[in-house]
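Intended use. Records like the one below are meant for learning the mapping from a protein sequence to its folded structure. Do not use them to infer anything beyond what is encoded.
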Amino acid sequence: MDLDGAAPAKWSRPLLLGIGLGVLLVLGAIVHLTQGTAAVDAVDVLRLVFGGGSGADTAVVLESRLPRLLVALLVGAALGTAGAALQSVTRNIMAAPDTLAVNAGAYLAVTAVAVTGGSFPLFGTVGVAFAGGLATAVLVLALAGTGGTAMVRLVLAGTAIALAMSSVTSMLLVLFSQRTQGLFAWGAGSLSQNGLGGIRMLAPVVVLAFAALLLLSRRLDLVRLGDDQARSLGVRVGLVRGTAILLAVLLAACAVTLTGPIGFVGLAAPALVRLLSRSVRGLHRHIASIPFSAAVGAALLLGSDVLLRAIIGAQGALDVPAGVVTTLLGVLFLVTLARSARSSGAVEPPTAGIAGGVSRFRFAITLVVLLAAVVGVVLTAALLGDAKLLLGDIGNWLSGQAGPIVRSVLDNRLPRVFAALLAGACLAIGGTLIQTLTRNPLAEPGILGVAGGASLGAVAAITIVPSIGFWAQTGFAGIGAALVTALVVALSTKRGFAGEQLVLIGFGAQAASQALVTVLITLTDPWNQTKALTWLGGSTYGRTFEQLIPMAAAVLMVAPVLVRLRSELDLLSLDEETPRVLGVPVPRNRLIALVCAVLLTGTAVAGAGVISFVGLMAPHAARALIGRRHARSLPVAALLGGILVCLADLLGRTVIAPAQLPAGLITACVGAPYFIWLLHRTRGLRAPRPSGSRERSRTGALASR
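Structure written out for the chain above:
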């Protein structure tokens, strides 16, 4: 009798949950059909359902509202299913089409095809998006691993690869604005459809991929138990995992083709199902979790579109991509997850560098060589460009004896050179501090949302008031950076600014900032769109010496603070326990260092736009040259960062002259291969925790400084 009653009890909660989701989807669909710009209300829709209504009403519902409804359900289900499959095979709750850079790769592939002028039918576009998404997903998984313990590592790897892909995409959008018109808004995810043609063609592909994953559900259950146990039961783990990834990427490619990249649905839907599985028996099995993830994904995307139309109206919803709403909702979920999740306790690999440092003589020689390199790069950047000058022209300019042409060229060129130098130094110092705070060699200022906040403030100023001056724009950028950072800090205080929590919450803040930037750009005229895109790529165009004051002041203000904190920073880079044992106030020092990083990054973004990867590469190169001690690595990193951005700005001005490329896009193209190499170099490594006399001697040496 007990066994007979157990079966109904076992399936009662999943059945009730399924009925509840079904009712929610039906109600959402009914509300969705009543929303629109045409004068077709709920009564008209009901009349059409029962065979009445006018021809005009029928056309509105069938050609506009119904396609938008169906694509929301189809794409939401596809992304939810893809996220469930990816999180299962990687055993990582942060795996999703957006965190694995699938969306970014697919977007780049479609944009590249548009630039070439090629035209593909819908299935051809799916193939292009599938190839781009698959390539990036394989790259991220190969670099981050699938062990299930590298949650932050996966976020950093996916974010950096997506940033590189987005930089190249932005470069194409700027250089080929006529051929790529409309792709920027599409890149944020738009549910607008022209009829049911695309849905009819891709719905069977989504259904077949969904069914194939259901057929794999039993094997996926076994793979989740562990590779060795699954192999002992006759499961070909590699084949199952590869097939699941291919199917997930195919689903994401179909979604990208129909609507553009939709963020966070693939992350949030399976995560919500996982949370529900704690109270609903049987939901942890793939035969149940996959369809429930699809239903939750459809409900999230449909609910986001209904919410968007209810808040800003149907006409405004035509201009604002639906992906913006899903990103903002997903960020709320991610922040909640980060605040409630326990730290994995995993220690990142030691940062590249010489463990014992170098001699004072070698450090002095390194500084002299780098200073000479800075002088050489500055002179080269001043002489080369669309108009080439001689070294004597600079001397004449300094003495006030230069001719009008030389004076005009140098008056415009030298501020750009020094803006690049200062921006690189600020970002390099900020990157060193961020890597120290998070104890993660893969972190950089952008990952904490600082650059995103500054971008949001500056783009808001540019798009709302196109004629705004530089100082006002700088002020808005500083306000944006300060507000976003304050929010990240406030949300991270629960665990004393723990590294993993900072990274996850900062990643969410960066994503939210980018979503809001997209809203601002898509709602402005094409001229401001190009201007904002160029600025987001990191451009020093049009800078004056007066506009360099904020960055110079930030460096001068931060330098004495970091000199005072140099020993504490060395201790903070080790682990949590060592500085506390030695009496170092860890939260206070972390907060001071974080404020310094924010000030430097905010002024750099305001002065030169968003420049990627400098805060990652320069600290690594500095530690490789002279070791990990902050008293030495900070000035060396500053010099290296300045050299890198100066060279990038020089290349951007000369490679395709008279046209120009923003410096940030050049650094992204250079930094992405370096980051890939760095991820490959540190993959699967864990820094051993010092013990015994070794730990005591190391602690004592640091404490005696």
